[in-house]
Design a protein that fits this description.
The chain is mostly helical. It has two domains: 67-273 and 402-426, Citrate Synthase, domain 1, CATH 1.10.580.10; 278-396, Cytochrome P450-Terp, domain 2 (Cytochrome p450-Terp, domain 2). It is built from 18 helices and three strands. Strands 1-2-3 form a three-stranded antiparallel beta sheet. Helix 7 (139-150) packs antiparallel against helix 12 (259-270), helix 10 packs across helix 18 and helix 15 (334-350) packs antiparallel against helix 16. The two termini are 17 Å apart. The chain binds acetyl coenzyme *A (ACO) and oxaloacetate ion. Oxaloacetate ion is lined by residues 52, 239, 243, 326-328, 385-386.
């Protein structure tokens, strides 16, 4: 049998019939993508963790408003303003807030930061066997494998009591940075033929400092770089129960699976280019625009190219302007607003071509709604999401592209763990939505009579 021919022939069987006509979905009122007719999400749960607000419903019409994000009821802007003005790192405080539902006192913060720092090490053999011996060209893929591999190093992997899952959560949150950083180093060694650099972790460093230390060949970083990465970690940590990866955690947790299986599933979801993977696609897309648009500040030229992207005639053919649009936010994503401020001031400091590139980002932001209106005849209010400026900021910190989405995971694991604990503590039912079969019955044909 010719395997390539087999795949060609059989892929056609799946692709071409298109038996389910679009009208069938309407007929049965199917909530495709778990969406209501107006595009809002179907309400499937209640949570006390993240609160994402992006529009107001007025007589069933979506009225765009500036976006707002709260962690455990507290506006992220207030969280950020406070730790930045007091000159401390914010990520560990946010992990505590997300997991336990309250802000830590000074002593609780110190104790928790020490706990995270102390839990970074793994039992003997883990780094060598799970990370270094089986590198992957994709760090998210490797992170999923490494998460599942952690199961074998846990003496009590299956117990789903809150206390045990909390222990597993704290350990995973503490270890994700090294799982990502060492996977990246292994990838550089085995796929890029560069020297293997494994810096020892420092239990006294913040998550941001420890991560920069592990990925830099010299192990060094500036206070400003650590502060910016810490901010990015804070901003990516949580986004309600309905985002694709947190919802994945709810779904698989409701089947009562183990922590490592639930978190690995979430990693797989986040990797997707419509979710956390978009940060990489934004960089690729902007590079593609830079290569194809002669004058980055020419509005007509940039608009023309964005329209081509939307028509699927440029960039990757997907028809998507990556980093733009959101399922909930309309006028703005508050995280993108904060990241944009940082991108702007960093670019201004560097000047030259980088500042011009920042100008191009701003132009894409400004012209995308116009391109949408002209190509899709859709006047929907869209704005940049968190993935739009994050990669540009990371690039200015010298962070390589293959780490953009993994850094998202290093942060979002805090939210995932909080959602897993919430799902377990609320003891909800197994998620089991319905799929209507529209094919009906068919007669069985004996093998000798088949074509
Ligand atoms: C961390 C995060 O996950 S943030 C999101 C990161 N993802 C991206 O940046 C990828 C680009 N953006 C998108 O694909 C979408 O905006 C999503 C996936 C984020 C949200 O999707 P939805 O909730 O379906 O968006 P919404 O209901 O507002 O819009 C639906 C329509 O607009 C289109 N659309 C929305 N955003 C975009 C975009 N950036 N480029 C092209 N088309 C888009 C959708 O494809 C869909 O078109 P259709 O009606 O012809 O099928
Ligand atoms: O909420 C969403 O759908 C996606 C998102 O922005 C996130 O998970 O951060």
């Amino acid at each position: 049998m010719n395997e390539a021919q087999f795949l060609d022939d059989h892929a056609v069987l799946i692709e071409t019939p298109q038996v389910i006509d679009a009208s069938e979905y309407q007929k049965y009122s199917v909530k495709r993508g778990l969406r209501n007719e107006d595009g809002t999400g179907v309400l499937v749960g209640l949570t006390e963790i993240g609160d994402v607000h992006g529009y107001i419903l007025d007589e069933n019409e979506k009225i765009p408003v500036e976006g707002r994000l709260r962690y455990r009821g507290i506006n992220i802007k207030d969280i950020v303003d406070n730790f930045q003005s007091e000159g401390r790192f914010g990520f560990e405080e946010v992990i505590y807030l997300l997991l336990f539902g309250r802000l830590p006192s000074r002593t609780q913060h110190e104790d928790f930061t020490k706990l995270i720092g102390g839990r970074r090490t793994m039992p003997p053999g883990y780094w060598e066997d799970i990370i270094l011996r089986s590198p992957s060209p994709d760090i998210m893929n490797k992170l999923g494998m490494a998460t599942l591999g952690t199961y074998s190093y846990d003496d009590n992997p299956e117990e789903n009591s809150i206390r045990n899952v909390l222990r597993q959560s704290i350990e995973l949150i503490a270890r994700f940075p090294a799982m990502v950083a060492y996977s990246y180093q292994a990838k550089r060694r085995f796929y890029n033929n560069e020297s293997l650099i494994i810096h020892a972790q420092n239990p006294g460093f913040s998550t941001a400092e420890n991560f920069l230390h592990m990925i830099r060949p010299t192990g060094e970083y500036t206070p400003l770089e650590a502060e910016l990465l810490d901010l990015a970690l804070v901003l990516h940590a949580e986004h309600g129960g309905g985002n694709n990866s947190a919802f994945t955690v709810h779904v698989v947790t409701s089947a009562y699976t183990d922590t490592y299986s639930a978190i690995a599933a979430a990693v797989g979801s986040l990797k997707g280019s419509r979710h956390g993977g978009a940060s990489n696609r934004v960089r690729e897309m902007v590079n593609n625009i830079k290569d194809n648009v002669q004058d980055w500040s020419n509005r007509k030229e940039v608009l023309g190219y964005l329209k081509k992207i939307l028509q699927g005639k440029a960039h990757d053919g997907s028809g998507l302007i990556y980093g733009m649009g959101h399922a909930i936010y309309t006028a703005s994503d508050p995280r993108a607003v904060l990241l944009k401020e940082k991108a702007k001031s960093l670019a201004e400091n560097v000047g030259g071509r980088i500042q011009e590139e920042y100008g191009l980002y701003e132009l894409i932001q400004e012209l995308s709604p116009k391109a949408f209106a002209e190509v899709k005849h859709n006047e929907k209010v869209i704005s940049p999401n968190v993935d739009f400026y994050s990669g540009f900021v990371y690039s200015m910190l010298g962070i390589p592209e293959e780490l953009f989405t993994p850094i998202f995971a290093v942060s979002r694991i805090a939210g995932w763990c909080a959602h897993r604990l919430e799902e377990l503590s609320l003891g909800s039912r197994i998620y089991r939505p319905a799929y209507k079969n529209v094919l009906g019955a068919r007669p069985f044909i004996p093998m000798g009579e088949r074509e």
